[in-house]
Amino acid sequence: MKLHTKTLSNGLRLQAIEMPGTNVITTLILAGAGSRYETQSERGISHFLEHMFFKGAEKYKTPKEVSMAVDSFGGAFNAFTGKEYAGYYVKCGKENHAKAIDVLADMLLRSRFEPAEIEKERGVILEEMAMYLDAPMYQISWDFEALAFGDQSLGWDQIGTKELINGVTQDDFKAYQAELYTPDNIVITVAGAVNEQTLDDLVAAFLFPDEKKKRQFPVLDEAKTTKKVNHRVKKTEQYHIAFGVRAVAESDEKYAALKVLGVLLGGNMSSRMFQNVREQKGLCYSIHTLVEEFTDTGLMVTRAGVKKSDVLRAVAAIRHEYEDVAQNGVNAEELKNAVNYLRGKTDLKTEDTESVAHHFAKQALLYNSTKNYADWKAKLAVVTKEQVDAIAKELLHTNAYRLAVIGDDMSVADLEKELA
User: Fold this and answer.
1) Which of 42, 50, 84, 334 is catalytic?
2) Which of 102, 205, 311, 361 has its CA 20 to 30 A from that of 69?
């Protein structure tokens, strides 16, 4: 795997990662945009704009023409909106790469955001919102983020509000695009069957105007993060719970230890949560602890699905695992297994052009870095028991606990007692 980079005079960053042995190329565009950049009145504009880039531009004029351009050669074509960045990609065979670049460049540089298409897409996104509300396994993550970060942009979900979805205009999209989709705020990465000369193809295709990013996301306001329990009342067959804490940022020197802690707590089938809460106590079918990272903060949260009669027992059982590791630390065997698990999963990512493109694009966009997989594996290899014990003790305590629940009505006071 070999990385080639180029930065143009307008600030646009280009990357090509050679991956021997594949005939596939992923072309990924990452922009420093997303829900964290929104104001209250704009909630959801980042995600809606992502949809609108697929609705027709100069060369591929209609949604069907955009889709057919990629479907005609069997490419994988999609986009996503996160908190701190939005992405657009095509994954295809080497022989179709020029067409993939052509489609993406037309979308990002020449989309028209026609009012008629905006009107049609309003209904599509409202249905997407309804889908998430009907899927507690997805909604619980957003509810926990809202609880952990409060009523500010980092705590808002990407789907937005019905008011924005029903009211956003063509001018709003153009203004938001002008503020954030600027060359100095975009990274274009190709990974797979490419070489240094591939960068020239990107330079020729992506002729962004010489504009500069005009908007920063706000600093996290700690005063808005005091609520500890959120219960979304909904008729469901199963209660969905998310129990966790605020954590450190991805750039923090303690991040590798945090990732190890997350794995040994609930990252796989040999973890404490799976073995103790599911296997021994039989309280759930699905349980998982994950770490979410942002540029200036993070989360560690355990999610599970349980029946109503077991909600309080399950919360108590999850809390017990948090407090046990905070008070008694980790043992040498589980530490070794967690480190090796993360290093092994890292190796698996290196085989997929989409994963590789995402890794290098994110590093460049958010951290102006070219850190590779070997760098990450090296960090993991030197994580010590003392480091994991220290971050567990630092993060896992009563004042830090937060709990989000989705399910039938029940006493919030009873839930709050489990966090006291």
Assistant:
1) 50
2) 361
